[in-house]
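Thread: "does anyone have the structure for this chain?"

Original post by V.I.:
We have the sequence but no experimental structure in hand. Need at least a predicted one for the grant figures.
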Amino acid sequence: MDAQSRGRADEIDPADQWVLNPRTGNYELRLDRSAAQQQPSVAVPRRPSSGRSGAPAAPKTPKTPSPSPAVPGPRRGEAPPGRRGGRPRKGGGGGGRRKKVLVIAGGTLAFLLVGGAVGGYLYYDHLNGNLKVTDVGDAGTGGFKKDQPINILVIGTDKRSGAGNEGYGDAESVGHADTTILFHVSKDRSNATALSIPRDLITNIPACPTKQPNGSTKTVPGEKGTRFNTSLGQEGRDPGCTMRTVKELTGITVDHFMMVDFNAVKILSTAVGGVPVCVAKAVDDEDSKLKLDAGEHRLQGEDALAFVRTRHAFGDKSDLDRIKTQQQFLGSMMREMKSKETLTSPKKFFSLAEAATKSLSVDSGIGSIDKLTNLAGELKDMNLKNITFTTLPVLDNPNEPPNKRATVIVNHAQADPLLQMIRGDVSLTEVEQKEQAAKDAADAEAKGKQDALLQGNRAPAGDVRVDVYNGGGPAGSASTTLNWLQNSKGVAKASNRGNAPAKVATTQLEYAPNQADQARALADMMGLPATALKMGTADAASKTPMKLTLGADFKGPGVSLTVPQKAPEDIQRVEADKAICAK
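Reply from O.Q.:
Generated one for you, tokens below.
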């Protein structure tokens, strides 16, 4: 009889039989309350390595005071729950590594990933089987890097699969991008920005190669001036199409995606024992069936889904106000998942692991528990106060009648500097001064050296020689920039060299020491920050041009690329640690 079967005859939940041992940091199997003082416990080890090619060494049989059939060893053919490589824990059994929890905000999901004592090979393999994996080709980077920011696109679809979901969303929907959050994790892992993208935003969807069930690739044609939510589902578009759309819209390359449907919020909120919410006034919404008195509530299941789906209960009854409500709910779910009660409850612990993996679709770059655990390790120490929810600033679509406005367009005056901050890895939150002191000092010293590059003479425009390459900007950027430089700025010695040999994230200007005056002049014209200037070590011949490579951050010639250090005024934002009443 395995661990999942024990206790069923007595109607005991197996999850209740796993108990945290404070001395070791491991969960241990206690067979029943009366025997807890007499029977030995079985420690739940760390998950095994993902390599499964070799047969693992047989574990040592636990010593017991007397023979007992209640705690059998592993059955023949099963992988035993040994520690990775059979190595003992450093420093003996005291202290030890405790389970780690990752909470990622997105869609209608605050995703919890368990990355420590999950519970043996069989359970680990079982969780792997829960995941749904999609190959999105080159839509993303294929994998995050340890020393770079991480960008994860979390998508909540309006597909009405699952019991009880008939009353939500569009009955004919193939699963559109109903709720989308770009989750940007800083390079130093100290903070994150969760950017909501309105589903009714009018934007351009690029052509999208999608993998077919038979292994072939079908390219779905692009579409201009359409709703953002049709970047998924419509015409067979997969999450990779939404990733490509987000890159074109924001200039930010997405590393990975995570996708959930209506069921996710129901099963996760139930698994955690309900999510605390607050409403400033009584709610009675016939469409979502949400009915609440003013004040605080703990919602789960259908009630939780109704709360995040309602459009008529709060604010001006628009999708933008629903986004605010969803952000408040996600922040509360994250706080609940990271609470001490959840972390020390075996029942909630295993229920959340099961619920999260069953709810999740991911790209192949993070398509296993092992890979997700690596991601968890990057984010495990982030404080919720340093996670900021915000929404891409928008305006009413001026092409619609005032009394029939249903879509929005980007408010570039606010959105452009906000996106520059995210691309430049600038936090929207205040991190603790002690944590920032050393970093600020180092940054100030580096900035001083960079700014010095811009101090000095400027060459006349007619003397500036530069080859322009497109390394990630919009199509035609090199040609557009060349025309602008020659016709508007008098840089007659500029040349268009087409596409760069490789893509670059940020625009950069490479030059020799004796071309510094030309570089400063071109930086002034183009609005380049000091960080974009890359000076070589050797002087160049007199007629050698500089090399300007337009990166993914390039929005147009003359559009400043200097990263703002302060968010635009009046943008909507809330930190994940703040409890706010929906109004």
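V.I.: this helps a lot. The first strand starts at residue 18 and ends at 20.
O.Q.: and Residues 1-19, 26-121, 431-438 have pLDDT under 50 and may be disordered.
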